[in-house]
Amino acid sequence: MGPFKVWKFSETSLAEAQQLAQERVTAIAAKFKQFGLAPDHYLYSDTRLREPVIQEIPGAIVSRNSYGCFVLNTSQAMFIDIDFEGTRNPQTGETQTIEHRHPDIDSTPGFFSTKSKDQLRQEFLLQKIEEWTATKPNWGWRVYRTAAGLRLLATHDLFNAEAPETYPIFGELYADPLYTKLCKVQKCFRARLTPKPWRCDVDAPQYYWPWESNNDETKFNEWAQDYSKNAARYATCTLIKSIGNSVIHPEIKHIIDLHDEMTRTSSGLPLA
């Protein structure tokens, strides 16, 4: 493992922030020594995310994450992320597909089938979501397709992102375990609004907020212009269907509108 940086904050003093950062460095080094795991660039960690606030709306904020995407953060509108592939086991470092995590999913195409593995995964999960919702008729979902899987948004009610009783639902609906951990740690639900840079032929940014210098901010803004131009050719998700209760909670409506506009849900563009 080569050099790495750790960022910690304190609402009390710089000395406390430095102490917390040193403790985190020690913990990362111990994990690397035991498991060979380097720091996770995606920042699924035990700390507040290092993200500037871009926009505030009632019940939610839009921030920019470490690799330059806009992200919707909400304490009451429940998003659930279901990743088909690419989830890394934090203990072993092994990358696991959804079939590894949930052996009940059979996505092997039949001999004469023309369907892809992802089509079969989607069909299986939609059936499971519909079956789950049929036992809870007051529940309603918007189901989106993303580049990596599915995104669910509960539309019938508000939820507490800090309540332990919220998260069994994630497990029952095949939620990505790292996404679940992030929601618990950050005490909010999250939904990426703009494409990942590398999916639209742009490298991740090399400069991070808070800026260490004016030059860093200038370089990031140059990167952001290039990213925005390339990201405009893609959508982040597309709506597949609505399931269950069709009545939308009044405090969810404006969040749906913002989400669908910024993700270009109705654009027909390729997903990234």
Q: Any descriptors?
A:
globular, alpha+beta, 2 domains, 272 residues, four-stranded antiparallel β-sheet
Return Rg in Å: 20 Å
Oligomeric description of these chains: single chain
What distance lies between the first and last C-alpha atoms, to the nearest angstrom? 30 Å
The total count of helices amounts to 7
The succession of helices and strands, N to C, reads HEEEEEEHHEEHHEHEH
Shape, principal axes of CA atoms:
globular
Main pleated-sheet profile: 4 strands, antiparallel
Would you tell me the structural class of the helices and strands? Answer: alpha+beta
Low-pLDDT residue intervals, each spanning 5 or more residues: 40-46
Quick overview:
The protein is an alpha+beta fold. It has helices at 14-35, 98-101, 117-134, 168-172, 177-186, 214-231, 253-263; strands spanning 53-57, 60-64, 70-74, 79-83, 87-88, 95-96, 140-146, 149-154, 189-192, 237-244.
Structure, explained:
There is one protein chain. With 272 residues, this protein is an alpha+beta fold. The chain has helices spanning 14-35, 98-101, 117-134, 168-172, 177-186, 214-231, 253-263, and strands spanning 53-57, 60-64, 70-74, 79-83, 87-88, 95-96, 140-146, 149-154, 189-192, 237-244. Strand 2 (60-64) and strand 3 (70-74) form a beta hairpin. The chain is globular.
